[in-house]
Amino acid sequence: MLGYIIRRILVAIVITIGIAAITFELLHLISGSPVHEVLGRGARPAQIAAWNKQHGYDRPFIAQLLTYLGHLVVLNFGYSYKQGQSVAQLFKEYAGRSLYLSGSALVLSLLIAIPLGIAQAVKRNTIGDYAMTTLTFVLYAMPPFFLGIILIDAFALHLHIFPPLVPSSQTSTGAALTHPRDYALPILTLTAVNIASFSRYMRSSALDNLSQDYIRLARAKGLSRRAMLYRHLLRNACLPMITLVGLSIPDLLAGNLLVEVLFNIQGLGLLFFNALQNGDYPILLAYTVLGGILTVLGNLMADIALTVADPRVRI
Amino acid sequence: MTEDLENRVKPLGATGLQVALSDPELMPEGGDVQAIASGWRLAVREFANNKVAVLGVGILVFFVLFCFLGPLFYHTNQSLTQPLNANLQPGQTSPINGQTYPLGTDEHGFDELGRIMLGGQTALEVGFFAALISIVIGTLYGAVSGLSGRLIDGVMMRFVDIVYSIPFLFIVLVLATKFSATVLEISLLFGFFSWLVPARLMRGEVLTLRERDFVSAARVMGSGRSRLVYRHLIPNALSVVIVNVTFLVADSILALAYLGFLGFGLQYPTASWGDMLGNADNYISNGQWWLVYPVGFCLVAVVMACNLVGDGLRDALDVRLRRR
Description:
The complex is a heterodimer of chains A (about 325) and B (about 325). Chain A contains 16 helices and two strands. Chain A has helices at about 1-30, 35-40, 45-55, 60-75, 85-120, 125-140, 145-160, 175-180, 185-210, 215-220, 225-235, 240-245, 250-265, 270-280, 280-310, 310-315; strands at about 80, 85. In chain A, helix 7 packs across helix 9, helix 9 (about 185-210) packs antiparallel against helix 13 and helix 13 (about 250-265) crosses helix 14 (about 270-280). Helix content of chain B is about 70%, strand content about 0%.
């Protein structure tokens, strides 16, 4: 098993290098050097050439790529000339709120989707099951920003329960934790979006397990229905969820971006969005590569967690 | 399925079968031999019996007619802004021409219903073209990878792993800051980053198909690699990829809406649903529900219909694959 894990980690490292190289290459094509941001539009060609030479932007592409990869190893994500800060510093400043938002949405959606999927499988083909399947199917097709707008309309503008936007005065992550009400709508939006995909898989996984012999055996040896559900079905049916959560990192990041833009939350998604508008390429490059690394890590962790949780995979 | 092989082997096989049937002694005990419907016909029947999938097809057909034929019957001005006509409620009469608008007008004075039709055109076009591009790239790439030796196959699939791990929305957004003016550009952009799943599916199919007798037979009969790919492997593996097409269409329509909402979609005079929802939070605060819910409803309906058709196709082709 250790050999398998080591091999998986090596593959993940190769893929991470590939991600960084391809993303760097693509952004290099769009914007080779940040010289225009630094010196302004009126800079003379000689000045531009001198600045490029001084900062290494005149070197061959391969040399620049190797420097970039070397920087990544020591977590140097580059420097945003527009913001006058290192990208790593900016990430540290903004990451807390995104983590709070995505993390709580993920935990909440698992807490709801797992029992929901099992309940649907146990009571399959009843009106309740059909209603929930339809609801999750609609949610699955719904863009997160549109769902967010519906929730704003209902809960903020009509029922006045929650504020429509997260007040921009809340700049620190600590404030986010002490004012959970302000984050209720964005978290609710992301939770609903996650539930839509999680509960569908959970339902079919629970259905698969329900028809298997070990469940019949558990009932036959006299186990109560409740004990069978909690002790046998729950643990087995949750196994595919490990993989699903590991694979859902790109969706989580995308949902995060849209929801942060809609609710004006000062997180990584909004940082990326502002960088898009300003053409702040070091941030765009860094966040795309970071997203790629998180995706690879998600896959890796899911694989390892599954080997630990499910002895059958180890063989 | 193994058409090519059957055609060549038929003379011998057919006469053999005829001899067997004409001799009453050799009739099978179960009675007459019955023709079993072909796999494809079974799949079509299975799909037609799936009410939800048929509903999905119906919704898609409705939106194609509504978006592409609608503007021919319902003429609206979608190019000249008319500030005096702006922000009319549905049914409210216009102060300048005395007209009423069934879904009201937006802040430029454009008829909302007509604009939804135009936005639907771009959504369906991008969905269709992006899926087409990614299927073509993915199918060819997967077939070549599956037929190549272990080393080349390994390298090609690692490349797929790498590109697949770059978050789609982020890389597409970054590139869209430079290339996202037209439907074609955006379709190409989506296509170039979404062929990875079809490529993986295709390779998996080719790996199992290439060990099968009819492929060996074709190879022994002297067919070259390109004939093998185009005549045998792609047609046989296609059913697995086809299921993916509808999901690709749905994902591309959603991605276009995300780009439009964030302001990096198609350029202004061209209408798109995401763009129309770009200011939706303001509209909702101003009580202009008609600029939010109809568009959003259409978007969700089309994406949902694609997913319904995809699920239906998967179930139907499962029946066909089980026969194999």
